[in-house]
TrEMBL record:
<keyword id="KW-1015">Disulfide bond</keyword>
<dbReference type="InterPro" id="IPR033116">
    <property type="entry name" value="TRYPSIN_SER"/>
</dbReference>
<dbReference type="GO" id="GO:0004252">
    <property type="term" value="F:serine-type endopeptidase activity"/>
</dbReference>
<dbReference type="Pfam" id="PF00089">
    <property type="entry name" value="Trypsin"/>
</dbReference>
<protein>
    <submittedName>
        <fullName>Chymotrypsin-like serine proteinase</fullName>
    </submittedName>
</protein>
<dbReference type="InterPro" id="IPR009003">
    <property type="entry name" value="Peptidase_S1_PA"/>
</dbReference>
<feature type="domain" description="Peptidase S1">
    <location>
        <begin position="1"/>
        <end position="99"/>
    </location>
</feature>
<dbReference type="GO" id="GO:0006508">
    <property type="term" value="P:proteolysis"/>
</dbReference>
<comment type="similarity">
    <text>Belongs to the peptidase S1 family. CLIP subfamily.</text>
</comment>
<dbReference type="InterPro" id="IPR001254">
    <property type="entry name" value="Trypsin_dom"/>
</dbReference>
<dbReference type="InterPro" id="IPR043504">
    <property type="entry name" value="Peptidase_S1_PA_chymotrypsin"/>
</dbReference>
<dbReference type="InterPro" id="IPR051487">
    <property type="entry name" value="Ser/Thr_Proteases_Immune/Dev"/>
</dbReference>
């Protein structure tokens, strides 16, 4: 495990299936509340990234769709899939706590 970066980084990633995440992580629950990304090229989340966004570039602009949840203990360059908590599954809770509503 390396050191935590002082520089804000970004990377373009592709999503993958829940089944691929579940096959890799086994005992962890992959239940549809996550978005899994393919980090097989060694580009994924690293130590210190927890809570960071997974943003999608849509026709309507950028949207935060995921929050960094977990990745492989082997490190960010291990090639293992990474999981993000799916923001849309928790919008009601977020709106009730913040008072900010989703502008659809």
């Amino acid at each position: 495990i390396g050191t935590i970066s002082d520089t804000l980084n970004e990377v373009t990633v592709q999503t993958t299936t829940d089944e691929i995440c579940a096959d890799y992580y086994g005992s962890l629950t992959i239940n549809g509340d996550q978005i899994c990304i393919d980090a097989s090229d060694g580009r994924g989340t690293c130590q210190g990234d927890s809570g960071g966004p997974l943003n999608y570039n849509t026709a309507g602009g950028w949207q935060t769709r995921g929050i960094t949840s977990f990745g492989a203990s082997a490190g960010c360059e291990s090639g293992a899939p990474d999981a993000f908590t799916q923001v849309t599954h928790f919008l009601d809770w977020i709106e009730s706590k913040t008072g900010v509503t989703n502008s659809k």
